[in-house]
Known about the structure:
Helix content is about 50%, strand content about 5%. The protein has about 260 residues and is mainly alpha-helical. Among the domains are: about 1-40, no CATH class; about 55-85 and about 105-130, no CATH class. A 3-stranded antiparallel β-sheet has the order 1-2-3, with no helix packed on it. α1 (about 40-85) packs antiparallel against α2 (about 100-130). It is elongated, with a radius of gyration of 66 Å. It starts with 14 loop residues before the first strand and ends in a 63-residue tail after the last helix.
Amino acid sequence: MAPGRHDTCPCGFVWLKDMQGDGYTCAGGNHRIDGSGETPGETKWRMSQEAKKQAEAAQKEAERAFEQGRAEAREREKERVRIRAAPPATNSPSQPVHETDADWERRESRERELRDLRERQLRQAKAIHEPPRATRQQSRSTPTAAQVEADLAKARQQKQKGTIQINQKDSQQRFQQAIDAQAAEERAAAWARINATKRASPSTPTPSTNRPRALPAPESAPIIEPMPWTSVPSAKPTQEREPELVRPRQSTPKEREKIPWE
């Protein structure tokens, strides 16, 4: 059984010890652990955690060293202030001690060295905790002729570059204005053609679909025949009798046949 593991791997196979090395591989070939029972992912995570802890410890150590250096610098400064404020140790208080030029120069040089050392320590301590910043070294001395010439050449180059940019912008504006004017002319010409087409009479005869249809031939006047009851009788008597007044002839009725039982 693999150390720190159950009898089987997550996929259900048993762990088999590698022929070479101290690792274990499951029978399915899907998982592998090292001799301590950790998967590659667990090993990577453990190493990352250890590296993170080491980085945090190093940062804390640097901060502790920085604070300790500042405390020591404060103590040294207090000691120097106390020594300066203390009265000079003389055998006879009535006789003041006169400082020679050599002593004054030695004291000034020693104080200057101490100041330089303190500033250098402060800069080093600040560089540990602050990200490096790109500082531009500016010389406070009188510029040389070469520097003046370089500055003038740079100024001329910048001025020339600005002039070129202005000229390019003006040329672009003029080109755009020319394009806009040409487009406006083309648009006006197109509208003129459209309006002329609308106002002009058709160049072709009117199509048959638009011609007015011919009116039908007028109908002949109806023949009105007077009805007998609407006609006025003539004053002259006529021998003709009206059809409706003619009586049928009297016919001899046929003798009816008798029925057998009559």
